[in-house]
Structure formats: C-alpha cells, structure tokens
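quick q for whoever's on today - can somebody do inverse folding on this one?? i tried earlier but teh output was garbage lol. tokens:
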C-alpha cells in the first residue's frame, strides 16, 4: 500500500511539473550502454511520438465532431453507408504510417542480428539454475551462480533480512567480465530447459534453448557493472539465477584474463594434491550450501515427493561409486554435476554428504579420482 501511494504521488507531481518519478520509478525504457540499446531506445521514442500524434489526431477529430455537431446545435446525422473517397483515404494513410514505422524498426532488428566482424565470442549455456560461460577465444570457462550472501538470506527461516544483503538476488559468485569498445558475439544454448539471458542495459534478451543455438552481440561503451536475470520461467529456482556483467577497460580485461589462467593452473594443482578428510568436509559444506541445499534443504531433509532426502539416503550411505555416478551424470531433475563442479568441489561435496547431514559413512574420495571420471568434453574445453 505504501509503495502504491508513493507511485501515485510521484505520478501526480510529474504531471503537475512539480517533481520527477525517475528517482524511484522508471516510466520509460532505459537508454542502456550499448550501440543497440540506444538504437532500440531511439526507435521506441520515434514510435511513441507517432502513436501520440495519431491519438491526438483521431481523438481530437472525434471529440470535435461530437461537440460541434451535436443534436442540441441543430445538426442531424447523415444517412450514408459507403464513401469510396473516405475508405481510400483511411486505407492509404495508415499504410503510409505503417511503412514509415516498419523501415526504422526493420533496420534496428537487422542491426541486432548482425554479429559479423565480432572481435571475440562467448558461449552462454543456461542450467537449472545457473549460467555457464565459455570464452571461445582464450579457453576461460566457468559457472556463475547466485552469490553466497543472497543464497543464505533466501533460505527458509534464515533469519537474515534480505534488505541487509547488497544487491539481493542480483549478485553472483563469478561475474561475466568483458572489455569495453569491443564487438562481442554471444552464442546461447541450454542444457536442460528454456532459459532467457537478459541484461537490460544491453538492450536485448535472448532465449537459451536446448539443442539450438541463438546468436546476438553487444559493444559496451561504458565501464561498469550491469545486472540482469533469467527472463523465462525455468523451474523452481528461476528467480535465483541472476546475471552480472562487468565491463572493463581493455588493459584491465587483459589482466583479468591472465589472472583467470593463473587460477586455472592453481585449480589443476589443487586437484592433484592429496586432501585430508577434514579439509574436504569443510569445503564440501560450502559447496553443498551453494549447489544442493535449495532442493535437498540445508539440513539434508529434502522435500517429500519432489526432492529426496540426503540424510539417511541409501544412495549416499551406500556404494561410493554409485553415488558419484549419480552426481556425475544426473538423473531426472538432478543436473549432471560432473560438468558443473570442479574436481575439488565435486570430491568435497561427495565427502561432505557422506559424513555430514546426519550421515557418518567415514570414507572419502580424492579430487584426482574425480578428474578421471569427469566428462572428456569438459577437460577439452578447459584446455582450449
């Protein structure tokens, strides 16, 4: 109710010329920070003014005719059914208007799909419920998930006030980093169901469809952080797969690329070392909270009839190989975590669920063993 009153107050002030609603409410499209977003904005304004002039002309003529040709002034209604001249006029004029609107609209649509001469390419894959990014030109590859602070606050009975979390539900653990003043081609697909990649500042959104590749491009002109969300209802956690794009100067972007390559080497080295069970359990608890708790619940109790419990599960407390195989390849609503988690994270969460959440099997699995089981395509992508 409070928000509604504020909206009406802002609208009233804006109409009276005494204030602006832009501070809390956006009543128009945003201009954005890319070439295309500005084209879309300019097209929107052009069509808006055309519609306004048409509305003024049509309703002005209608109200003028009603008022000045009313019965009380002695006018009588004309008795006719066809008028060829009028019919020709009201056919030709709308046609001219539509053609005039179609020309700039078609130009903008063609520009949106023209990804030729791109300087770099990024493949985006939608998963339930996170985004996978693969830089086709330098081999950088990672998954981007809801950030830990938002993930903790959104849990039932968390006791955390969401308003205390910066960028609640609009922040991620690993943002997409790109250079400014660079034409970037995006390739979109999905691993499970239809998602939609949408960052308003870029001026467009694209569906990610399993087994199909959609294409778009962008050229960000301003350094900054730009946030978006999945715009297609894709399942239980649809509202928890935000998008964060950080645009950097080219020199800063190049430094980020080198940093990611160094981290990849460190991650590979971490997978080769022998981990203590306590280390795996401690790390696995965090991995579980970020990847598993939303379905199986923070305490491992699951959701009866939908998501099975981890606590006391015959799969989890049974044969290690069977459990790892299920997690690696997925089943039903459970995604294939072999493609989503690093060898270290996979080994850690596997060990944690067997020795936590009420389970106490007492065994563990090393990241080096997981590496030999992970899909070859993932390893090849990381090596490119």
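ok took a stab at it. sequence:
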């Amino acid at each position: 109710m409070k928000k509604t009153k504020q909206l009406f107050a802002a609208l009233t002030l804006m109409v009276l010329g005494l204030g602006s609603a832009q501070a809390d409410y956006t009543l128009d499209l945003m201009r954005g920070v890319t070439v295309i977003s500005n084209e879309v904005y300019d097209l929107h304004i052009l069509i808006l003014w055309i519609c306004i002039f048409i509305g003024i002309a049509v309703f002005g003529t209608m109200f003028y005719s009603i008022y000045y040709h009313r019965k009380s002034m002695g006018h009588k209604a004309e008795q006719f059914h066809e008028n060829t001249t009028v019919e020709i006029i009201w056919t030709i004029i709308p046609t001219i208007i539509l053609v005039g609107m179609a020309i700039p609209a078609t130009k903008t649509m063609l520009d949106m799909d023209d990804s030729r001469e791109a300087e770099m390419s990024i493949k985006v894959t939608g998963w339930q419920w996170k985004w996978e990014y693969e830089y086709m030109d330098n081999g950088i590859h990672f998954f981007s998930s809801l950030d830990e602070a938002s993930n903790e606050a959104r849990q039932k009975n968390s006791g955390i006030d969401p308003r205390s979390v910066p960028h609640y539900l609009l922040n991620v653990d690993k943002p997409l980093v790109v250079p400014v003043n660079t034409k970037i081609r995006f390739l979109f697909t999905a691993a499970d169901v239809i998602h939609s990649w949408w960052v308003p500042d870029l001026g467009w959104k694209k569906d990610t469809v399993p087994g199909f590749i959609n294409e778009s491009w962008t050229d960000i002109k301003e350094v900054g952080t730009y946030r978006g969300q999945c715009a297609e209802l894709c399942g239980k956690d649809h509202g928890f797969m935000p998008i964060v794009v950080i645009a950097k100067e080219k020199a800063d972007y190049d430094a980020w690329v080198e940093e990611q390559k160094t981290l990849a080497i460190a991650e590979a080295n971490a997978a080769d070392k022998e981990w203590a069970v306590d280390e795996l359990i401690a790390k696995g608890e965090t991995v579980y909270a970020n990847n598993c708790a939303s379905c199986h619940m923070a305490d491992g109790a699951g959701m009866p009839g939908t998501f099975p419990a981890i606590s006391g599960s015959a799969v989890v407390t049974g044969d290690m190989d069977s459990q790892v195989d299920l997690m690696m390849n997925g089943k039903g609503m459970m995604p294939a975590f072999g493609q989503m988690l690093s060898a270290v994270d996979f080994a850690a969460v596997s060990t944690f669920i067997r020795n936590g959440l009420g389970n106490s099997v007492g065994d563990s699995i090393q990241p080096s063993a997981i590496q030999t089981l992970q899909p070859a395509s993932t390893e090849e992508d990381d090596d490119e």
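fwiw Confidence is low (pLDDT under 50) at residues 18-23, 377-384. also The first strand starts at residue 120 and ends at 127. so keep that in mind when u check it
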